Here is the input.
Amino acid sequence: MNVQAEIPYKASAYKSDLKPVWCPGCGDYHVLLSMSKALAELQRKPEEVAVVSGIGCSSRMPAYLNCYGFHGVHGRALPLATGLKVARPDLTVLVAGGDGDGFSIGGNHFLHACRRNIDLTYIVMDNRVYGMTKGQPSPTTEPDWDSALSPGGTGLSPFHPLVIALASGANFVARAFSGEVNRTAEILVEAIEHPGFSFVQILSPCVTFRPEQRNWKDMIHPAPVGETDDPGRAARRIMTDDNFNIGILYRGTRRPYDTKSNQNPKALDQLDTGFAI
Here is the structure.
């Protein structure tokens, strides 16, 4: 009997028929392409992939990908993804969001997702501004960024997501730039394949509310030192980081949360008995 070889999935197979509504020049267009390329490189079947998001420009991502998707509420993408991965460990679960959704209202969930080390990949498109709500400063905004909504700047120290991820226990930490589509796809492949919680910060310019970010393409540069599995060495490097080093910072060896140990389903009547007064 002749068995027809399975046709490899191309990047286009992971794109939905919906047209993105991001502003012209938004870096998220390139992130969408990088995610599609990464899934094609991994040859994951679309029905074996789920993308979970919260609220914001970048959180539209599930609608533009041809796989399972869940568009959650503001800041709650990680707990949704955690529940999904624990219930369905067979799925490749990606989480997409932005700096406001992930580091402000979702900041506490970010800490504990890193700590739990469940096998998720968290992709944050960081543009240092709330783009969907017209240009407020975000947790990663520079303290002296002057705008109509924050004249003279906030004066607040920016949130440093790579430092927080490393300190909280993420098992893979990296930074990419949306304009480098192929390199970003390569980093995403590494992140998805690495066991445990993987965090990838992608610098994704918002040229509508931060037009000066067009210069990011000239400011990014490869990290001066290679990746490490030593959290102490990674911490020393990242504390002197200029926020434009691109590449994998840390590839840890911590054992991921064991989702299979909890696969002992109970009938509803058994659950009711446990809560009986």
Summary: The mean pLDDT is 92. Residues 28-42 form the longest helix (15 residues). The two ends are 62 Å apart (CA to CA). The CA atoms of residues 20 and 64 lie 7 Å apart.
